[in-house]
Design goal:
The protein is α/β, with parallel strands linked by helices. The radius of gyration is 24 Å and the shape is elongated. Helices cover 35% and strands 19% of the residues. α3 runs parallel beside α4, α9 packs parallel to α14 and α12 packs across α14. It binds ligand BES, manganese (II) ion (MN) and zinc ion. Manganese (II) ion (MN) binds next to loops.
Amino acid sequence: MKIKLKKRQEISFKKNKFYFLPFFSGEKIKFDGFEDKSDILKEASLVKEGKSKMFFSDNSDFYLVNLGEKKNWNQRKFLVNLRKAVLVLKENRNKEAVFVLDRIIPEKADLPNLTKQLSENILLAFYEFVRYKKKPKEGWHKINIIEIVWPDNLKYQKELDNGIIVGRAVNFTRDLSNTPGKDMTPQGLVEAAKKVKNEGNNISLEVFDEKKLKKLSMGGILGVSQGSVLKPRLIILKYFGRAKSKEIDLSFVGKGITFDTGGLDIKPFDSMKGMYMDMSGGSAVLGAILAISKIKIPLNIICLIPAVENMPSGEALRQGDILRSYSGKTIEVLSTDAEGRIILADAISYSIKNHKPKIIVDVATLTGASLVALGYRATALFTNILNTEELIRVGEDSGDYVWPLPCWEEYEEEIKGTFADVANLGKYLKQGGAISGALFLKYFVEDNPWIHLDIAPTMASIENQGLAKGSTGSGTRYLIKLAQDFQKIEKNL
Ligand code: BES
Ligand code: MN
Ligand code: ZN
């Protein structure tokens, strides 16, 4: 699929295409290049606020959308409308499309970022997970070209190209997350990491197997994995975008539970449903570093993905077991279903000790409680860096929306262990469960600058987002944007 930015004057009506024609209500409807097509203008004037209509004329498809009033414009709404248009285009199976958008971008819009979002969101909306489906006779639908009438079309080619890199990376993340647990095993994640290493720039890969994990005393990763026949791995990818320096700017740690049954504290039917996606933090890290290395962001970044399956069996972790983590701190296992934090603890401590990153960022489908707190529309953000406003802005600009929850010192007493240093379950069980999860990680992070993204809320898509069923790839865009804005964020530490 090609995406091209065009000037108003370059567009004229041609048959057999799909035209996306959005407009504001309360303004005179005007589509440049379509002045002589009065039937379309008339049809558009009949579409009510917030509604859309398909109109067929001259062998072409016209998708008319009334966006409401111009003063109510915002980037979020614009992007949802854009994605929905791509879905309609896909359903119509047109191969060529023209999106006439220049008159619906208000002056206040952040055009560079919006241009990046444009190509990115077209790819996100077009994506569908079809790996296990029979190819239809007519083949999977392909779009040859989308031409976009856009303000200042020549200025933003770089942003458009970056959006394509990012969109592809998020879809790569979604492919990994959508792959069932049978195929996306710990070794499956290693294979994905190999692909990232081969396709990216300046990336090296190291994989710790069970023997090495034992040698390093990674009791957390080993403990959670012991019930499964699949052996654990710790995947370490190193991206040196700043070759002259050995200093590590960022460390990305992604939860890689390839299937979460809950272990002996087994999950009921409804809760186990999407648990093949419990490695979505890990896949977000893989997608992000791939894009970062392609954009060639000048930073040094280490990625760590503990990859483990959480299964019950005669050899599984029990309630009350005490694990000695890599850091030496002991963990009291009060629930075998709070496993993500245990494997992350080892990876976080390893990175702090061996890489000394300026900021450590973990991404994890950590708690159902974060979903209870926020619904499906925001990732939970925790940090011991003071400036949360800046971190919310990164979410807004990237399209991966985040919202902060506290990780105050007062909460610490809730995860104190009785017979070990720390418990993997809060004293008040699921009350404030997202916070207990974060505090557990913070206990291992200590005073190192840290950001924790609990992506359980945004792991899977919901209706009306203009996204296919399954994984959203959430976290991927956040990490990329964080890397792009690193200098700014570092200053505020
Ligand atoms: N992977 C789950 C969290 C989850 C739930 C992710 C729903 C995505 C959607 C995690 O390992 C888990 O089981 N958490 C428990 C923690 C509890 C035992 C303290 C939970 O949320 O119930
Ligand atoms: Mn669990
Ligand atoms: Zn889990």
